[in-house]
């Protein structure tokens, strides 16, 4: 395929889930799209990274035609939030919030594959998707933006009315007028799949039933709300499936997300502790995790492959420039606490597609970019500040702040309207 100097309406740099979501959202709109992904299509992998999708993200994926094909979806009906060393805790439930589920847990690779299959069904006249296409340079000016990339050992060029950077931020230094801000949290996330003795003997059929996406028919939905309410009212919600745990510690939060008969673990620790934990054998790892998390789920009895990665807050200002817009992790990369990062990026893609479809002749113009930037500013800023504040407020051993955290969690648990407000903002963003 010869794309040298070919013109498009849109070039998306970065073919991960956020870039693919934008391409899928533009199907049938008459917008010509070139999607460039630096990596090749991965084969089946044991990638342990969990992805926490909000209920709002599920709605977007349904509209994109991706949700139905996702395997291994585990709903989150209840979120149990606690502070180690303190008595306060908050329990959020789907029933109290008025939704079938607060969120869902899937494997990152499964989402990638499902979106890739959907892209392969797109009209070739509207979408061209190149893997192994490494963008080395981009140029922007009053006319069309231009990218230069390596593909199959050949240097190629393409132009478009709008360049969408969804590559995680690698090319920000080439965009005039855009600054990337970086704050190193001095923390690592250790991720793995783990099993606890409290769930070890649960029948597979029961787990499969819980994993089914809830239906929308009103009577069934009411029954689903009743079940979720039972989980919330039960004095031991951890004995039931569909419960996610967020436990704050001085070292950082540790999250356990329901994943079939397992939990997906996201354990935040210092860089030195991460190195130690990743080097442990399974028995020592499970014992250390149990000592850190506590007895709420009993002993940890099985662990899958472990991996770790450093955590930092990264965000760009502004998120638009001449003929360029940044979305997803290129616009903002957040701490995994509260699971907001991918959900925020998915809303970036969806709202950008809405803007392009509503004003097709203005794609890439200053007026269009100004509207989009203004539209996303509140959601992006609130998500970033909320996540950063959680990390700083909870990741310390200050006794005064510890008392304040416990009192705050207890007070929130006694205020249903406040809990509903928090839950809906986490599901739908700042305008939820």
Biggest sheet details? 9 strands, mixed
Give the overall form.
Answer: globular
Q: Decide which structural class fits the backbone.
A: alpha+beta
The fraction of residues assigned to DSSP E strands is 25-35%
End-to-end C-alpha gap: 44 Å
Radius of gyration: 22 Å
- Helix content percent band: 25-40%
DSSP helix count?
Answer: 12
What's the β-strand tally?
20
Low-confidence stretches: 200-240
**Averaged pLDDT:** 86
Explain this structure.
The protein is α+β, with helices and mostly antiparallel strands. The chain has twelve helices and 20 strands. It has helices at 17-25, 55-63, 94-97, 108-120, 204-211, 218-233, 271-279, 282-293, 341-358, 366-394, 399-413, 416-428, and strands at residues 6-13, 33-37, 50-54, 74-76, 78-83, 89-93, 103-107, 127-131, 134-139, 145-151, 154-165, 179-196, 243-248, 254-259, 262-269, 300-303, 307-317, 320-321, 324-326, 332-333. Strands 5, 6, 12, 13, 14, 15, 16, 17 and 20 form a nine-stranded mixed beta sheet that branches. Strands 1, 2, 8, 9, 10, 11, 18 and 19 form an eight-stranded mixed beta sheet that branches. It has a three-stranded antiparallel beta sheet with strand order 3-7-4. β5 (78-83) and β6 form a beta hairpin. α1 (17-25) runs parallel beside α4, α1 packs parallel to α9 (341-358) and α9 packs antiparallel against α10 (366-394). The protein is globular, with a radius of gyration of 22 Å.
């Amino acid at each position: 395929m010869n794309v040298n100097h070919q013109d498009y309406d849109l070039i998306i740099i970065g073919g991960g889930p956020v870039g693919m979501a934008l391409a899928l959202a533009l199907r049938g709109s008459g917008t010509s799209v070139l999607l460039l992904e630096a990596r090749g299509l991965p084969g089946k992998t044991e990638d342990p990274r969990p992805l926490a999708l909000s209920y709002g993200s599920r709605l977007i994926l349904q509209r994109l035609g991706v949700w139905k094909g996702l395997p291994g979806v585990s709903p989150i009906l209840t979120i149990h939030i606690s502070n180690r060393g303190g008595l306060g805790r908050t329990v959020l439930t789907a029933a109290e919030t008025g939704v079938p589920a607060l969120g869902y847990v899937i494997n990152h690779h499964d989402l990638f594959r499902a979106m890739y299959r959907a892209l392969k069904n797109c009209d070739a006249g509207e979408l061209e998707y190149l893997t192994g296409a490494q963008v080395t340079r981009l140029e922007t000016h009053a006319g069309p933006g231009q990218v230069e990339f390596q593909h199959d050992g050949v240097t190629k060029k393409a132009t478009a009315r709008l360049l969408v950077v969804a590559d995680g931020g690698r090319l920000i230094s080439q965009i005039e007028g855009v600054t990337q801000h970086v704050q190193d949290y001095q923390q690592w996330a250790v991720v793995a799949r783990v099993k606890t003795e409290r769930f070890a003997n649960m029948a597979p059929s029961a787990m499969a039933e819980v994993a089914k996406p809830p239906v929308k028919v009103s009577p069934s939905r009411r029954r689903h709300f009743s079940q979720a309410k039972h989980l919330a009212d039960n004095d031991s919600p951890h004995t039931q499936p569909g419960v996610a745990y967020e436990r704050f510690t001085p070292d950082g939060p540790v999250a356990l997300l329901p994943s079939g008969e397992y939990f997906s673990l996201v354990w935040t620790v210092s860089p030195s502790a991460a190195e130690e934990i990743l080097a442990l054998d399974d028995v020592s790892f499970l014992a250390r995790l149990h000592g850190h998390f506590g007895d709420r789920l009993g002993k940890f009895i099985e662990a899958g492959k472990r991996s770790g990665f450093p955590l930092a807050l990264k965000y760009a200002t502004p998120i638009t420039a001449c003929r360029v817009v940044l979305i997803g992790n290129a616009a903002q990369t957040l701490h995994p606490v509260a699971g907001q990062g991918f959900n925020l990026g998915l809303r970036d893609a969806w709202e950008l597609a809405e803007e392009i479809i509503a004003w097709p002749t203005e794609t890439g113009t200053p007026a269009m970019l100004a509207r989009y930037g203004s539209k996303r500013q509140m959601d992006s800023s609130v998500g970033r500040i909320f996540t950063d504040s959680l990390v700083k407020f909870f990741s310390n051993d200050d006794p005064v702040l510890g008392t304040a955290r416990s009192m705050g969690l207890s007070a929130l648990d006694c205020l249903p309207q406040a809990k509903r407000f928090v839950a809906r903002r986490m599901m739908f963003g700042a305008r939820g």
